[in-house]
Amino acid sequence: MGGRVLTLLLGVGFLASCVLWLPKAASNPLPGQHTGFSPVQPIAYSHKLHAGELGIGCTYCHWAADKSRHAGIPAASICMNCHKSVTATVAARKAETQAAEREGRALKPVASAEIKKIYDHLGLGSDLEPDPAIQPQPIRWKRVYEVADFVYFDHRPHVGAGVRCQHCHGAVETMDRVKQVGSLSMGWCVSCHREATEHGINGAAVNARVECTTCHR
Amino acid sequence: MSPITPGSTGTADGGNGPRKVYWLAPHPHPNVTAAPLATDTMRVQIAAPETSRRDFLKLAGFSMAGAAAACARPPVQDAVPYLTQPADMVPGRAYLQTSTCGVCQAGCGVLVRTREGRPVKLEGNPNHPLSRGGLCAVGQASTLGLYDAHRLTGPLKAGAPMEWAAADEAILAGLAAAREKGGVRVLTGTALGPTMQAAVTAFVARFPDCKHVAWDVLHGSGVLDAHARTHGLRIAPRVRLERAEVIASFDADFLGTWVSPVEFAAAYREGRSLAGDHTRFSYHAQVESRMSLTGSRADHRLRTTPHETRALLAGVAQRIGANAGVAAPFAAVTLSGALSKAADDLANRLWEAKGKGVVLCGLTDADAQSVANFANHLLGAYGTVLDLATPSRQLQGDDRAMATLLAELKDGKVGALVIIGSNPVLQHAEGAVFGAALANVPLVVNVAQRLDDTANLSQWVCPDAHALEAWGDMEPVAGVLSVQQPAIAALGKTRPALESLAAWSGEAKPALDQVKARWEAEVFPRMESTGTFLEFWNGALSTGVVEVPVDAPAVTPFEVAGVQFSQGAELADGQFALVAHPTVQMLDGAHAYNAWLHELPDPISKVTWDNVAALSVSAAAGLGLRSGDLVKLDSADGRSVTLPVFVQPGQHERTVAVGIGFGSILSERFALLGPKWVNHQPSTGENGRVGINVMPLAGRAVTITKTGGTRPLAATQEHFRLDAGETLGDAMDSLPTIIKETTAAAVLGGHAAAGHEPAHSGAHKDLWPADHPYTGHKWGMSIDLASCTGCSACVVACQVENNIPVVGRDEVQRSREMHWIRLDRYYSGQGDDVDIAQQPMLCQHCEHAPCETVCPVVATVHNDEGLNVQVYNRCIGTRFCANNCPYKVRRFNWFEYAHDSAIENLALSPDVTVRSRGVMEKCSMCVHRVQEAELEAKDRGEPIPEGGLKTACQQSCPSTAIVFGDLNDPKSAVSQLRTDGRAYHALGELNVKPAVTYLSLVRNREEA
Predict the structure, then answer these.
(1) Which of A147, B183, B825, B860 is deepest in the core (most CB within 10 A)?
(2) What's the pLDDT tens digit per position in B632-690?
């Protein structure tokens, strides 16, 4: 008796989960694959502007890409290398200069809404000096690319071998908000590794291993 | 004594002498693993339907809802970078920084491996002249203490949290009151660095009639007191075992727990070097009443009662005196026939090795130590093996001062008591009296990291910082100084003891300033360096250790009158001598909070999660006892404890040996440890703690009464056995090759290879073609059984490195312990007259691995560098591989061994996958370290330097028994060792071509 109820409930549960899952299955080919994932970030940082229009190299901000497993999300202090002086758009600053001239007053600090978020996080006042009233808070970016916990990807050998960042991350320099391009599935990794070993990278022979321990340990 | 039927297990082909038979446990089969396991109780549980079915349905429903939800959207994780990038710090890379191990008085140098500012592993510092890169099991395990969720995070007054400012104010007021009345006392342990000593001295100087009492439960004060008598100074010599040719140890467990085991293990190995230009092999005799780790390594071992140990020591000293023509200044001891002969032999051997022979005495009484001094003086050991010019600072205890303190406490004469790093309520024989007397003291301040047995009874508890959080220093041997450098900011509101003492001395000063000031004033000038202090200081931080010249202490000429000895009373009939001894895993009990150490099998008994009353085979047979039977030990003065028996071959039949440090209040936390399932049993005993505190009976004569109850022990000795077991073993034609032994004479004479042809090489056909070329690296390992002491540092090192879970007592009883490397302990011989062989057993990474062929999902495969790899994400948990593994090294995750505490999860290494339920795991030969080294080498465009890649077990090994390297490189150390005459493969007849080679055990005796 108890066994039959159990089976019935399990069956109902299974059907329910299938029904719930099916609509999602169309957009997500396999569980765990998130191609196209593009979360809203706490600061509307644009790679299109920085990497595309301004032409800043990837490793200026992601400076650990050739040194470590992680390419690294830059510390706010790296943003401040430029944003110490670049506080707003040229237009906004020009408008303030003109307004100040017109009204015969001193320049007021101008900071665009998104750039000001960096200053707030760093606990800086409007004069860009530390303001004891503002508690520094780390920026909680949303992670876009993530591999499973049992996968150990290492940026260092990839960058070292001359694989372009765009090869996996897509044309980031055209994205306002970063979107996941590569599927990060194991087949996606392995096929590229095989191809690289066969054809080399930029004409140089490489040994892109496809041993289990290359990524799993 | 009942005859022992050996349970098969393997042979030695020493080349000389008869084949040796090895066995795991005395027969008849002890009650150890025959615990009422699984079936019966499980059936009962499943038959109780109401709760379990409901729980099951709930879980089934939740898991389906979870599965549905898990596919709904990508898990959004936060990525939180630094606000301000620290200089010289690359996220994702590990950093090593030097420091000093804080767990005991030995003061080993360590390298702290940190990831993103989080210490994850301690390694030995190879620069350190004493520990030489080794680190013991307890040191390895101490990172868990840092992330201990039960550690105190701020001051407590009578158990209620306080702020530091308020606490300091109240304590200063209390101290001021005590200054008027007098009687301020400071009680410390003996792991005090020079700056800490100075801080204590400064504190003591502020109060009239204030006294500092240093107390050492493990070593007492015999060595210091005896040298005060014979050499005029209260000092302890530095023992340089590498200079000894004959070592006679009387109850000194110098490879396990005595004074500085890591230093001694390294030196001992150097004195028994079988390779290289300087081959030699010291002779080691051990006289002891229990089976100690050191005794298990001895070339000659004598079982004695504690009374006989003393008598034999005196007898040997007298015989040496006779050889030297100096009469011993005490009455001649009478020795029975066998002992007398042993004394003659030992004295002769020592005398022949004059200048290179040494007597080590582990007895804590000053009389016995003075006799040892007498013998060493006549042997010329002072100045060679025993170094008084740079004495050891590892011994600081003073038993008489402690006795005085206890008396003062009882009489209410103590006005204020400051306790730092000492837990006498647990560790002292009169602990209960000490605890009760604390109520008589107006002010008790305990600087402890946790609410230990003494802190629990202390009015004020002002938590000390963990050694990885605070500045400090150590000087284990005069002139060898190392800095204790913090690797992380304090996790709670703790305060280093240095700062607390300074605050209560009225001169609050950060610990760093205190250490630096002292080094600038005391250490730097001794260097006679031309540079600045800052350069010197930075250099010291970089290397972790400095050696400065010291003035030799002014010892007086040997004072024979200081040697005193009287034979104590012998044991009465029916009485047993209770030997309370420290164990490798628990030491003095200060680390009883540490689950890694409780689950580490005792190297000899293999018991986990308990202390036991070890009895010899014959004594147990005489009393009708088997392992696991509960016995009551009663002393004449009415003290008693009830403990499970463990039948320990090799122990003296009139002694009962019990480990100390157990039964601490710190172990109460383990009641709920382990997977939570219907049949879960606590890891603690009936007292709610792990083990029983036996200190109240230490050193007494006891009677043994069987209670009739049993407590099945969680002993791993017969888990994962390589042999066929009793039944099958008898039916087998030949015994498998597991251990091989030879003699030093055979090796040094070049005959090691005799009988050591690679087992069955070419005799069998290979099942598989040799179609794996291994063109790049081919990793392999060699383990020298002659060097291995069985200290188990590798086991804990591996556990820390590879995120190996703790499963708890109940699961260990079910053979579900998870250690990737274990120490197999084999006996040979009959009854209590046994030898012990230790064999580290880990995945052998067989070229023709039996596990690989049976995996239905190819989750375990060979990689192109000769490693047998386990792919967790492929594994579906059939356990076929474990079944087919001849070495029984595969471990299955029966449960999700979740870490419930977020802070304790910080101890996990981010370089190794945390395995989930249902997957198999095993030694990976630290493949993450291999990859890191390979990437590093690729980056630099250079090959991996020899010694630049070490596995975790190899790194921590104090006696460098483990060597890992590239077998494709003929010049690598591991390749060289493979061709050594002693090299063999365990179970070589199976022809599975292991990547691990063992080098046979060597004993310095006539026959292997």
Answers:
(1) B860
(2) 999 999 999 999 999 999 999 999 999 999 999 999 999 888 887 777 888 899 999 99
For residue B852, the chain A residues in CB contact (below 8 A) are none
Question: Shortest CB distance from B935 goes to which of A14, A31, A157?
Answer: A157
For residue B1, pLDDT over 70 is answered with: no
- Chain B from 837 to 896: CB within 8 A of any A CB: 861, 863-865, 867, 869, 871-874
For the stretch B179-216, pLDDT in tens is: 888 889 999 998 889 999 999 999 999 988 899 999 99
Chain centroid, CA B551 distance in Å: 33
Report how far apart the first and last C-alpha atoms of chain B are (Å, whole number).
25
**DSSP alpha helices (H): ranges in B586-718?**
595-599, 617-623
- Mark yes or no for CB contact A6/B57 under 8 Å: yes
Q: Per-residue pLDDT for B119 more than 60?
A: yes
B792, amino acid identity: S
Tokens for B272?
A: 């028994």
**Degrees (nearest 5) of the Cα angle A13, A15, A19?**
115
Rounded to an integer, the average pLDDT of A14-27 is 67
Residue B957 tokens read as: 């090994």
Least-confidence region, from B275-279, B351-355, B396-400: B275-279
A residues 124-183 closer than 8 Å to B (CB): 136, 138-143, 146, 148-150, 152, 154, 156-157, 160
pLDDT tens figures, B489-508: 999 899 999 999 999 998 89
Tokens of B256: 């396990």
**DSSP sequence for chain A:** -HHHHHHHHHHHHHHHHHHHHHHHHHH-SSTT--TT--PPPSS---HIIIIIIS---HHHHSTTTTTSSS--PPPHHHHHHHHTT--S-HHHHHHHHHHHHHHT-PPPP---HHHHHHHHHHTB-TTSSB-TTSPP----EEP-----TT----HHHHHHTT--HHHHH--GGG-SS----S---HHHHHHHHHHHHHH-BTTB-------HHHH--
- The lowest-confidence range among B8-22, B346-360, B736-750 is B8-22
Tokens 């628990």: give the residue. B586
DSSP string, B707-743: EEEE---EE-TTSS-SS-HHHHHHH-SS------EEE
Token pair, residue B916, equals 């989930």
Q: In chain A, what residues touch B911 (CB-CB under 8 Å)?
A: 152, 217
Amino acid at B585: Q
The pTM is what?
A: 0.89
Instruction: Find the CB nearest B872 among A39, A142, A150.
Output: A150
Phi, psi for residue A197 in degrees, rounded to 5? -65, -35
Rounded to whole angstroms, the Cα distance separating B781 from A7 reads 52
ipTM of this predicted structure: 0.83
Cβ contact, residue pair B78, A78, below 8 Å:
no
Give the residues across from A61 on adjacent strands.
none
8 Å CB contact of A154 and B935? yes
